Amino acid sequence: GASADTGTDVVVVGGGQAGLAAGYFLRRARARFVILDDRAEPGGAWGDYWDSLRLFSPAAHSPLPGWWMPEEPGHEYPSARHVTDYLAEYERRYDLPVRRPVAATGVRRADDALEVATTAGTWRARHVVSATGTWRRPFVPDVPGRDLYEGRQLHTVDYRSPGEFAGQRVVVVGGGNSAAQILAELSEVAHTTWLTRRPPRLMPDDVDGRVLFDVATRRTLGGTDGGVGDLGDIVMVPSVREARDRGALKAQPMAERLTPTGVAWADGSTMEADAIVWCTGFRAALDHLAPLDPFDADGRIPLDGSRCRREPRLHLVGYGDWTGAASATLIGAGRTAKAAVARIAEDLGASRPR
Ligand code: FAD
Q1: Chain-centre distance of CA 248, in angstroms?
Q2: What is the pTM of this model?
């Protein structure tokens, strides 16, 4: 079991790709550190994605630092399972000290250190890297009538495969990639309706994750701050392209409210539905940082690079572009982690990661 009141240089909270990338550079910096992850198994959120999910880009374009993802035999775009296997092997390869399952419940200031309270005792550290991702905080918009609706409601995080919805009337809400991909496969077996707040923006067919990462790289190198969304929001993976060609990707404006049996629009029209799938995104999972009071009036954490302005011993890696360009992607996590660990190593007086 984990020991209480353990002292170390750095505690990394979260053992997904972002936490592992931080671990890689902490090893190279010869820092003493531990990675705490609340899951039983390696892989972070990749272990929870729906069954058919594949990466946006070929394996060679989705590397963590040091050891690149091998190809998945027979598949140009690797499966989520392949990514979890890669992350599990990555941990072993670099002998990363991941403790599982250990959930961080609160990070506090304690004299000259930060104290990380967990489900397995308390760690003291000179620095904390938070890499808890967004999957633990699904977001559902506050649409009136949500509590009145008697059908089934689920979020992206609850969805695994289309089979159980066969023959049902299913409403998919959301204008991003999760919605488009889940809609694509549901529409093969169910009567689907797609609701989006604004018309969905499909990327050109020949744009995949490679192009998105190139855009992110240009931004890292000092380009514009325009989102990757400049290109559109939805990557036309094969299942989504096929659904579009079938005519299954026609979106309707978002409903005004839910009724006990379906949805209703402002003009009085209604539609019945057996299930509503909220593919409405995520927020950063930051509850454990609340005791540090790192938030501004808008509820955001102001950063210098990945370093928290209100608590310079705290760094954030992953989550989204606000912690570093494409920081929430496999290829971007390494860049942000490298920069964060360089700052930490300066403070620790240890050797810098090269
Ligand atoms: P996570 O993988 O969520 O890891 C965080 C870890 O911290 C988890 O194990 C979590 O359980 C744990 N944790 C959370 N809170 C605590 C706590 N308080 N204490 C301890 N542990 C905690 N990126 C790409 O590069 N290519 C793609 O093709 C791609 N496809 C995607 C498809 C989907 C559907 C989604 C949602 C994302 C996709 N991404 C893709 C983006 C990104 O790669 C993933 O979201 C990735 O999982 C983010 O990694 P992370 O380490 O930041 O977070």
Answers
A1: 27
A2: 0.93
